[in-house]
Amino acid sequence: MSAAAPAVNDGALLVVPLRGVGDVRTGDDLAALLVAACARAGVPPRDDDVLVVSSKVLAKALGLWHDDREAAVLAESRGVVAERRTPGGTTRIVRSAAGPVMAAAGVDASNTGPEADGRVLVLPRDPDAQAARLRARVADVSGARPAVLLTDTSGRPWRVGQTDFALGCAGLLPTDDLRGGLDADGVELHVTVRAVADELASAAELVKGKADGVPAALVRGAGHLVRAEDGPGAAGLVRFDEADWFATGTVESVRSALGCPPGTPGVEPALAVVDRARPDVPGVLARAVAVVAAGLAAAPLAAGPPVLRDGGVEVPTDPSVPSDPAARSARSAPDPAHAALAAAQVAERVAVACRAEGLGTRVLLVPGAVRVEPVTVGPARVDATDVDARHS
Question: Low complexity bias: where (predicted)?
Answer without folding.
Answer: 318-334
